[in-house]
Amino acid sequence: MQGVVEKIFVTAQGGAMMQTVEQVEAVVDGGLLGDRYQMRVGYYSGVDECEVTLIEGEALDDILRETGIQVAQGEHRRNIVTRGIRLHDLAGKRFTIGEATLEYDRPRPPCHYVETITEPGMTRALAGGRGGICVRVVKAGLIRAGDPIQVL
Question: pTM for the whole thing?
């Protein structure tokens, strides 16, 4: 099972617009360097946070086609958009992306908060298993757009 990183998004503040980056450092017990959850300033910091979130590019394609809801510029609030891999199949597994090793944590269902800072219907659009997953960083390293995702 192998996929690829399509896009990477981070933001330094909870509620702020996600920014596209070409590469980012994954930090053990922290997440992505400079992201709101790595800095512990995200909306869910200390409550229900994920170190790193992934979402399938195919799910975003479906959302845009079915609903017209904009999800191409990080409106989904996930860090890494993947292509060619079923994220829920990573349950119980470790995998590499670029130099980093990550471990599946749990599904990341959408919340109402995402809709309050994006557009009406976003929560519903991300429901049904399309909200992505949470992962933990177990080995630090650089992650780049275009990196392969390889299950260990």
Answer: 0.92
Please state the length of the chain: 152
Q: Which CATH class is domain 2-151?
A: mainly beta
**Residue-range domain boundaries for the chain:** 2-151
Rg, C-alpha atoms of the chain: 14
End-to-end Cα spacing for the chain: 10
Tokens, residue 101: 């090793």
Q: How sure is the predictor about 34, in pLDDT bands with cuts at 50, 70 and 90? A: very high
Report helix, strand or coil for 87. Answer: helix
Beta strand pairing call for 80-83 and 52-56: parallel
